[in-house]
Specification:
Number of strands: 0
Shape: flat
Structural class: mainly alpha
Radius of gyration: 18 Å
Number of helices: 3
Largest sheet: none
Oligomer: single chain
Strand content: under 5%
């Protein structure tokens, strides 16, 4: 199966590279590229991968529950 990659693109206006870098970093943060790079920095054993996915799932569930409680009150 082939993955489709969405490229992050930033244009530099008036040779303002620092501003373009700041925008690029924000876009990469939103896309989750930094998190992915951190995960793939070294080999992850299947058991570690399973544990990480379970923890991420619990974190997402807690966040959804907290948001639902804030909205509805129960």
């Amino acid at each position: 199966m082939r993955e489709v990659l969405d490229l992050v693109e930033v244009t530099v206006i008036d040779n303002n590279v620092e501003h373009a870098l700041r925008i690029l970093k924000k876009k990469m943060q939103r896309e989750g590229i930094y998190k992915d790079m951190k995960i793939h920095r070294h080999f992850e054993k299947p058991s570690e991968k399973k544990a990480r996915k379970r923890i991420d799932s619990l974190r997402r569930a807690r966040k959804l529950t907290r948001k639902r409680y804030e909205r509805t009150g129960y």
